[in-house]
Amino acid sequence: MSIYAYELETIRGERASMEQYKGKVLVVVNTASKCGFTPQYADLQKLYEQYKDQGLEILGFPSNQFGEQEPGANSDVQSFCQLNYGVTFPLFAKTDVRDDTAHPLFRHLTEEAPFQGFDTSEPSGKMLDAFLKEKLPHYLFGNSIKWNFTKFLVDREGRIVKRFESTVEPLAMKDEIEKLL
């Protein structure tokens, strides 16, 4: 199935389709407002501002599946993102991104871009890996999303090019994004 076949719900409760992003380079990311990685919103917004006129779209999908770090209503999430990080890229309704209730879009993304492990040579990768091994070891099995702010880079034809785990800072994706623009 093509990435463009999926139906979505915007953060305002409107129906949307991935079809509207055909021909764009996409960063699809699951997000949360009360996570150690939440400051990544700032750099995601920087990337969006820098490259949106060249065809980049960043699509944010809040999820409450990781430590209940996105407890608020969609309107709360939207306000938080705008007030604290000036987010203007598209946000979608709170979405399940792992396990049996995962939205089909995220099942597709994780099938096409399997989990390759964390970079444990970096402190944040080492810390998240250790945390999951101790507290949620079952999260490390399979290709599902492991934590908030997992990012998927999609080319203009809708092919998933690369998966960036939570510990990868958004600005570290710049070179890969520029290749696709």
Order of helices and strands: EEEHEHHHEEH
The side-by-side strand order for the widest beta sheet comes to: 4-3-5-6
Question: For the CA atoms, what is the radius of gyration?
Answer: 15 Å
Briefly note the structural class of the backbone.
alpha+beta
Pfam family, one: GSHPx
Keywords: Oxidoreductase, Peroxidase
Organism: Paenibacillus arenilitoris
Protein name: Glutathione peroxidase
Itemize the secondary structure elements and their pairings:
Elements: E1 7-9, E2 15-17, E3 25-31, H1 40-51, E4 56-62, H2 74-85, H3 104-112, H4 123-135, E5 151-154, E6 160-164, H5 174-180
Parallel strand pairs: 3-4
Antiparallel strand pairs: 1-2, 3-5, 5-6
InterPro entries: Glutathione_peroxidase (IPR000889), GPX_AS (IPR029759), GPX_CS (IPR029760), Thioredoxin-like_sf (IPR036249)
Family: Belongs to the glutathione peroxidase family.
GO biological process, one term: cellular response to oxidative stress
